Amino acid sequence: MKKILLDAYGIPEQVARCAEVADLPAPGPGQVLFEVLAFPINPADVWFCHGHYRLRPPLPATPGAECVGRVVAVGEGVSRVAPGDLVINLQRENWAQQRLVGENDVVRISPDLPIAQAAMLRINPPTALLMLSDLVDLQPGDWVMQNVANSAVGRWVIKLAKARGLRTLNVVRRESLFDELHSLGADACLVDGPELQQAAAAAVSGAPIRLALDAVAGQATARLAECVVDNGVVCSYGSMTGEDPVMPRAALIYRGVRLEGFMLGRFLASRTPAQIEQVYAQLAQVLLRGELQAPVAQVYSIEQIADALRHAQQGERGGKILVAPNGPFA
Ligand SMILES: NC(=O)c1ccc[n+]([C@@H]2O[C@H](COP(=O)([O-])OP(=O)(O)OC[C@H]3O[C@@H](n4cnc5c(N)ncnc54)[C@H](OP(=O)(O)O)[C@@H]3O)[C@@H](O)[C@H]2O)c1
After folding, report:
1. pTM value?
2. Which of 153, 155, 270 maximizes ligand 1 atoms within 8 Å of its Cβ, making it the mutation to test the pocket?
3. Which residues line ligand 1 (CB under 6 A)?
4. At what angle do helices 219-227 and 196-203 cross, to 10 degrees?
5. Ligand 1: nearest atom to the Cα of 174
6. Per-residue pLDDT tens digits for 74-109
7. Which residues touch 73 (CB under 8 Å, ≥6 apart)?
8. Domain 2-120+294-324 is classified in which CATH homologous superfamily?
9. What is the topology classification, in CATH, of domain 124-265?
10. In this predicted model, what pLDDT tens digit does every residue of 305-329 receive, in sequence order?
11. How far apart (Å, rounded) are the C-alpha atoms in residues 188 and 200?
12. Plot region of 185 (φ>0 → left; ψ -120 to 50 → alpha; else → beta)
């Protein structure tokens, strides 16, 4: 079977290669064998290839934080999934044609989910959901502010916030995105910049912003901190600049603004397997109702991994880059 291997950490399109490796064995007791139908290239995967992600396994390493697959065979004692089922994998190393994992590592999802959307279900949608539920006790009518609002996470934040009666103030890098974000349900949109505080106050008519979500870091974090109300929360969950978040002392010390970090794994870890299944079932319903289609810029074959990685690192992309390791999917 084919699998992506990194022989070194470095520039992703230079260090990732599509290798021919031995086929996987038949599943043993409690194991599930599935073929990978699609995986996205997320910013964290790019960091992983660089060797700058929190996980830096010994080489050769295989990236891939998420995927969707179809079960091929199950081992003795497996009862939660059966051959033919569509599954997402809670384990990593998914940039391959097949995966062999434990029964509890996979979550069965509806066979009616579009494959492309299912491939992007595991990480970004629950990140948006749990940041809106676990950090601040938000009430209908409250404002939530976020940067990278046109990202996959950002779009889910807009949609899920709307469903809860929350209002979103969305910060992006170009005005041409405003119409699209408004049509998703964004209540207000702004372009990031030095005047963000004044523009944000005007956009929400002076209403308090109790939560701001930051995936840019550096000075962008400081700009969000200036927009939130006293004792509000700025949540740092990513760094598209590669910088650490900057928090102004005045916000921290005088106004009691808190900087909190979010990592999906930490927040899922406090939930039972049944609660985790419930989280994914809730998010799958949004997709099944057709309320959100995370945009896809292009789908590549596994042999085209270098091109796919190059494309995934381009700014102003029209959506996610997906890879279909076993050929085109319906
Ligand atoms: N902590 C967690 O558990 C967790 C989970 C999921 C995701 N994340 C993080 O969430 C963020 C978004 O992920 P995603 O998969 O949703 O992203 P995505 O769909 O790939 O979109 C990337 C976004 O980043 C913006 N961007 C790129 N470079 C930038 C820069 N230098 N300054 C400002 N904005 C920049 C892009 O804006 P343009 O369109 O203008 O290029 C786009 O909005 C990432 O940082 C990711 O690591 C964290």
Report:
1. 0.96
2. 153
3. 42-44, 123-124, 127, 148, 150-153, 173, 215-216, 237-238, 240-241, 262-264, 315-316, 320
4. 40
5. 40
6. 999 999 999 999 999 999 999 999 999 999 999 999
7. 26, 27, 32, 33, 83
8. Medium-chain alcohol dehydrogenases, catalytic domain (3.90.180.10)
9. Rossmann fold (3.40.50)
10. 999 999 999 988 989 999 999 999 9
11. 9
12. left
Q: Which two tokens stand for residue 25?
A: 């064995």
Atom index in ligand 1 nearest the CA of residue 264 equals: 3
| 100 Cα to the center of ligand 1, angstroms | 30
Cβ contacts of 80-88, under 8 Å, gap ≥ 24: 80/104, 80/106, 80/108, 81/32, 81/106, 81/108, 85/111, 86/110, 86/111, 86/113, 86/118, 87/32, 87/34, 88/118, 88/121, 88/122, 88/280
Closest by CA position to 212, among listed 266, 171, 255? 171
Ligand 1 atom with minimal separation from the 238 CA: 45
